[in-house]
Amino acid sequence: MADTTILLIGCGKMGGALLAGWLDRGMSPTKIYVVEPAPVAQKDVALVKEFAALPKGLKPDVVVFAVKPQALDEIAPAYKSYAQSGAVTLSIAAGKTIAVFERHLGASSAIVRTMPNTPAAVGRGITVACANPHVSAAQRAVCQSLLEAVGEVAWVDDEALLDPVTAVSGSGPAYVFLLIECLAEAGVAAGLSAELAQRLARATVIGSGELARLSDEDAAQLRKNVTSPGGTTAAALDVLMGKDGLAELMKRAVAAATRRSRELAG
What we know:
With 266 residues, the protein is of the alpha/beta class.
């Protein structure tokens, strides 16, 4: 990675999280070029507002597209020469397929499409990646290292799996935030003050997530560990795990998000 030159296109929330992660890991700012018209917090990297302002003769090893999906078709063609010169393209543009990049950059271009999620902003994200056949083992390893700067990384061979990945982990943080909302509202309905209910709900979800992260036991066993037969937790789980309960709702929710992901990609 010390000799890897990175060109980051777009430095919003996700691009900014990646950039901060790379610098925190000790990557030299002199090896990073950023194209972003808006102000960027990191002042020690080479920053330009548009493609035309990039140094002549720049030969990046990785070109990272962190732009809004709706802007990609207009922006991507300018970077075709880098792809044709051997750079691997790493995309975090949600919903934009490998075929879209091949159309803009060339059919023989090395493309890695990814689906990150918003906990990347605090270094606790998970990103799922899919590479086309033109990505070499070395390029895949470089992309893995770059993505690990903001959390875990998994790979799939079938690009179609990025639709359910989007539904589970890409959209998943919203489901967790909704759980906090609903748990707090239920606490208020049971007589707690809004402030205390919100504090309890937030701390409980955060603490439970950390326990799950650190434990060798799976989620089902962790749930059983909290549940005494005939106790208060069991009474609540009889509702949540009953017919048309949380499991069925979550399956329907993920299925709906998966369908929508396919529609948007199409």
